[in-house]
Every structure is written in structure tokens, then in C-alpha cells.
Amino acid sequence: MVTKTGTRTALEVAAQVRDPELPVLTLADLGVLRDVTEEDGRVSVTITPTYSGCPALDEMGADLRRSLLEAGFSSVDVRMSLSPAWTTDWISEDGLRKLREAGIAPPSRLGPREAGPVPLNLVPPSRRVPCPRCGSFRTSELSRFGSTVCKSLRRCADCAEPFEHVKEI
Amino acid sequence: MSFDNAYESLIDHEDTHWAFGTGFSEALAGVDREVPDVDRADLAAYCLMLGDDALILSHRLAEWCSRAPELEEDVALANIALDLLGQSRLLLTRAGEVEGEGRDEDALAFLRDERDFRNVHLAEIECGPFAGGDFATTNARLLVFSAWKIAQYSRLRSSADPVLAAVAAKGLKELAYHRDHAAQWVVRLGDGTDESHRRMRAGLERVWPFLDELFTPHPVELRLAGVAVDPAELRSEVDGVLDAVLSAAGLERPVDVPAARVNGLAGRDGVHTEAFGYLLAEMQHLHRSLPGAKW
Ligand SMILES: [Zn+2]
């Protein structure tokens, strides 16, 4: 059963909550919102962590709870799902565009992963990551680990600006 | 919402915003938590082994924060530590719930004594930034540890325990980044100057005696067929990865001389190295002095 409080369903409210670490994205854009159910004003939301240790997860839960209560739902239960594990392929097309517009290079699509051995990279994989500012492909990785666990830091050789890249996982 | 200062937004709400061990801390809410048909004490012990491996290495890596040779490495090692901490939270929560005595992740991390920890020695030994190693040694350890964990988690993905299978599938992607990071440093230092080569070689020699324990099965692991991984199975895969890295780095594989055991016992039995007591004192001090502290 879908109840509307005012005009918005629980799913609509939950989908608009923003990611604390990448605030240009909603939780729906990021692909961490797995399920929203609602009955008689009581909402149950299932989210999945991006990384096992993502400290934003607690905050996402708190933000979801606050937004849904403010929207008039009577109770909110936030649950976590680990499986299937989140990958950057869960970020929506809209999400990739918003990242690019915010000056953050979006991850490329990796497609289905093979179940075989994890490949060892003795040099950083030379992915073609275009500069979100000028579009140049002459960019290189400065650090695989950036300001948050999901981002790396790169530099553009043409416009000479550093930029962040949501790295593929 | 507005606050007088930035920190005010982090405290005193119905849901505490920040860090672990506060507020929204039911780490496994909503996860399929069916307990497979095995001895519960064994399963709890196994979850502790894996959780402690990740927790203790996470602590060791966090010791580098503000001490790494460059800012990027500070950030990298802290991020790797955070991934491992996240894995350990899930594993310790699972251990506590399977045990069924009401201990949560915090009780297990902060209120157990040395003899009750089940991590392998490789995770706990000092490899820098303090005495006993340096940045090269830390990367030698991280390479060996993550190569071993990748082999273990790859197999755990099909564990009969749904939580272990899910944690492994998720953690594997993180470990791949950790292993690449360490491997690239081992190659860079091994294939660098005479000094960096010498220090990388010393780093490998420091950690090599702790390899043998990684592949020595504990009775709990052998009793949990279908749930746990027999570590003896991992040796050839791990050796293959290490040999590939060492050969690219122009480094020779150190001679295998396993560290001595005490009456045949080691980390999985709760027998630890001298450094471990100091590590625990540092890690547990705050929680034990101010139970439930948050900031
Ligand atoms: Zn550019």
C-alpha cells in the first residue's frame, strides 16, 4: 500500500536525500537505496554501504530518518543490506552527469565482474579519465586515495588543475 | 538547521552523526543473518579470527596517520585502515550475535584481554612508524596480508554463512586496491635506489617469518567445513602473487624460517607477541577509561 503524506510517497522522500560525502548526488543517484516500503505511515528503508568502512553510512541513516519523519511518516526503520555488494556501476546515468557538472570525474562503467582471480596491477591501470574541466584526456593519477575512500586525486596536463575522480570499484 | 560552530552539528541529536559505536550502530540490521547448521561456538570463534585480523591491522595502519613520508600516503594508509575497520565491525558484530552472550562490536574490540584476541601475528607486529620497521616494512606487511586475505575472501564468498559470504564479497574489492597499493610501493622501492632496495629487503625479511602462520590451519577452521576456508589451501595462490611482485621489484624471496611458536600455539590460540599488549593498551585505553565515550 502506498500512502502519501501531503503529496510525496516515502520512496520519493527517501530518493531525494543527499549523500553526505558527495552532496551533488541523491541516495537514489548513488544507487545505495535498495528498498523502500511503507505501511500505515511506517516506513522501512534498506540501504547498502559503498565501502565496508564508509563513515557516511550512519549519517545517511540519520538523514533518511529525519527527512521521512519531517515529511509526516510516523516511524522509520533503516536497515542495511550487504549483498549484492555495491559497485560504481550502481550510480545512475543522471548521477554520472551530476558528478561531471560538479567537477568530479565520474567512474567508468565496469560491467559484470568475472568470478576468477583478482587481477594484480603492478602499475596503476591507465584508465582514460577525461578532465571534468576541459575534457582533456591527458590526465594522470596523483594519489589513488583522496579526501574520501571512494575518490582518487588526479591532475590534468592541459589545464593544469587537479581534480577528484570517483574510482571504479 | 544552524549551529554556532561546525562541531555542534556532530553531537547531541537523536541520532548521533558520527563515528562508530554510537547511535545507528546495529551494523548488521537487515542483513540475512541465518546461522548455518554448525557449532555456534566454532562459528563465533572463526568470525573473531577474521574480525581481529582486520581490526588489529587497521589499528597498526592508523598509527601512520600524520607520520607517513608524504601527505598522500597519510591519506592512503588511513583509507585502507578505514576499509579494514569497516570489515572488522561487521565480523565482530557477527561473532557477538552468534556467540549469543550480548557482546556487541565495541565490547569485543575494547573489553577483551590479550589472550582472547585471535588475530594472526602478522597483523600485530610493529612494522613502523615506531620501532621495528619503517614505511617499506609496512608495505611488505600490507602486501603479504592483503594477498593472503584476497585468497581467503575469494573462497569465503561461497561460505554457508551468509554474513561471511557477504562481507567477503564486499571486502574483496577493497582488498584489491590495498594489495595494488602495497605491491606498487614494493616495486618502486625494490627497484629504486640502493638505499630503498636495502630497506625494502629488510622489510620483507622482517615480515617473512610470520607467513607460515597464515597457512597453518587451526582446529576451528578445519571443523567448519563449508563455512570456513582451510588456510593450507591458500599457499600456492599467495606464493604466486608474492613471487610476481618480488620479481618485478628485483627482490629475492627471503628464506622461509617460521617464527617460533609457544608450545605449538600462536595468534589464533590467543598467544601473542610482546608488542601486542602495548597495542591493546593504546587501542582500548579511551573506551576503558570513559566507557561509551563519544565525540
Ligand atoms: Zn583539464
Which percent band covers the strand fraction of chain B? under 5%
CATH homologous superfamily grouping of chain B: Ferritin, core subunit, four-helix bundle
- Strand proportion of chain A, as a percent range, falls in 15-25%
Number of domains of chain B: 1
CATH class value of the largest domain in chain A: Alpha Beta
Order of helices and strands of chain A: HHEEHEHEEEE
Largest protein interface, residues of each chain: A-B, 42 and 58 residues
Based on Cα principal axes, name the global outline of chain B: globular
Estimate the mean pLDDT confidence of chain B. Answer: 89
**CATH architectural label of the largest domain in chain A:** 2-Layer Sandwich
Radius of gyration of chain A: 18 Å
Distance between the termini of chain B: 20 Å
Indicate the low-confidence ranges of chain A by residue numbers: none
In CATH, what is the homologous superfamily of the largest domain in chain A? Answer: Fe-S cluster assembly (FSCA)
Structure description:
The complex is a heterodimer of chains A (169) and B (295). With 169 residues, chain A is an alpha/beta fold. Helices cover 21% and strands 22% of the residues of chain A. Chain A folds into two domains: 4-80, GMP Synthetase, Chain A, domain 3 (2-Layer Sandwich); 103-108 and 125-169, no CATH class. In chain A, the strands form two sheets. In chain A, strands 4-7-6-5 form a four-stranded mixed sheet. The longest helix of chain A has 15 residues, at 56-70. Chain A is elongated and about 55 Å long. Chain A starts with 9 loop residues before the first helix and ends with a strand. With 295 residues, chain B is mainly α. Chain B has a single domain (36-289), classed as Up-down Bundle (Ferritin), CATH 1.20.1260.10. Helix content of chain B is 57%, strand content 0%. In chain B, helix 1 (40-62) runs antiparallel to helix 2, helix 2 runs antiparallel to helix 6 (162-190) and helix 5 (135-156) packs antiparallel against helix 6. The chains are: A alpha/beta (169), B mainly alpha (295). At the A-B interface, helix 3 and strand 3 of A face helix 2, helix 6 and helix 10 of B. The structure holds zinc ion (ZN). Residues 131, 133-134, 136, 156, 158-159, 161 of chain A line the site of zinc ion.
